Amino acid sequence: xxxxxxxxxxxxxxxxxxxVVARVLxxxxxxxxxxxxxxxxxxxxxxxxxLDPALMHRALGTLTQFGQRIREVPRDSLRVVGTATLRRAxxxxxxxxAAKVALGVPIxxxxxxxxxxxxxxxxxxxxxxxxxxxLVVDIGGGSTEIILGERFDPLETESxxxxxxxxxxxxxxxxxxxxxxxxxxxxxxxxELQHMARRYRTLGWDEAVGSSGTVEAIEGVLRAMGWSxxxxxxxxxxxxxxxxxxxxxxxxxxxxxxxxxxxxVFPAGVAILTALFETFDIRKMEAxxxxxxxxxxxxxxxxxxxxxxxxxxxxALAARWHADEEQxxxxxxxxxxxxxxxxxxxxxxxxxxxxxxSWSARLHEVGQTIAHSGYHKHGAYLVANSxxxxxxxxxxxxxASLIRVHRRKLATxxxxxxxxxxxxxxxxxxxxxxxxxxxxxxxxxxxxxVAIHAEGRKVSVTLPARWLEDxxxxxxxxxxxVDELSVIGMELVVKPVER
Length: 499
Description:
- By secondary structure, the protein is α/β, with parallel strands linked by helices.
- It has 3 domains: about 5-110, ATPase, nucleotide binding domain (Nucleotidyltransferase, domain 5), CATH 3.30.420.40; about 115-295, Nucleotidyltransferase, domain 5 (2-Layer Sandwich); about 310-495, Hypothetical protein af1432 (Orthogonal Bundle).
- It is about 50% helix and about 20% strand.
- It is built from 18 helices and 14 strands.
- The chain has a 6-stranded mixed β-sheet with strand order 8-7-6-9-11-10, sandwiched between helices. A 5-stranded mixed β-sheet has the order 3-2-1-4-5, sandwiched between helices.
- Strand 2 and strand 3 (about 30-40) form a beta hairpin.
- The protein is elongated, with a radius of gyration of 26 Å.
- It starts with 5 loop residues before the first strand and ends with a strand.
């Protein structure tokens, strides 16, 4: 039986998979269990950016174990997020479909900036609230996130495709620990970081903080070697680099406090952190215990409390592009009413369906500011390419697709939608299109009762005959919609009734 006080987060990182289970007590998160398994997912990407089947099989074995641990966690209190490697892998959907079976919930692939936001949230909750500005750095297996923030609010977020697993494959593949290897890795990392470092240095910060495995491992070694009492210094990092070169080969590395499963990617992590220190002119960095999975937990707690950041993101985007609030509200009410009538039997995952319909209704006209002609395309582009804090990559793309197809042709819809979600998306699109169509007159007068019934690929809509006669343009649009939906194999039946 599910325990309603439990929440959990699973982080499918490029180097390791993490599970953290927590209990919510008086509004606070108290961690009750953690699991971690090194998977080296990023190392399984071939030159065609496809994940190796054998590595996927091993990774899924880890997730099966995680799945057993989270059986008592309510499904709506569990989030699973994927990072850099799942952003890049061309066959990521194959892995995520199997992962969903193992864990019981879909995987949210985060954009780089959304990952950065959640990392900052996790770090901010693990440290005392500072008076000034904080620079947060997280070196992962496939990417490095850099965030500038104050208190619990990120001000600048960036993600660079630099990771300790990918950099190991690129610059330490021969296992040699030479000055040349380090310089090549550091130079390449610096080139990736330069464009953002200039802006961050201009804004400035009061303290630098590192999170996740690489920073924790480096700080642990520096302390054990007596090169630092607390945190990481530029001088201590330089000494560690020299010490690694003395070993000559990665397999010979033997440093106090360094776990055996971290050795293979440790030199690359040192090289990346050295580049960060040099490029951002960092002199000292503290280590934080909070990271992405803790940030996911706090973000999830906000959703449970109905403080969903995604709602604020949608409202901000609508305001920025001057969407007609009254028209959006009319379309939203009707779309949600139609959804309520068709019920969960026709559209699975009704809570998400409600959110997506609500968000797409609020944003369906944001492209009008650019041009009325093709405004649905402009709106879809804005939503797909804006930074949207709180949204996973897939949900953002699905939202953009709904806006793209809320009018005109449906034949090429959902090109960027995962196959398993395409039917879900199609049915949401039908409801949104009907709601927009019914409010074409933009009248503040309420609609008559609109009855809808849906089963399989047949949708029946019942409206008062007199109202249809008085709204001949809507009636004509409904006849056109019958033809449009038939192109994609969906039957729409409009039934006028006398009242």
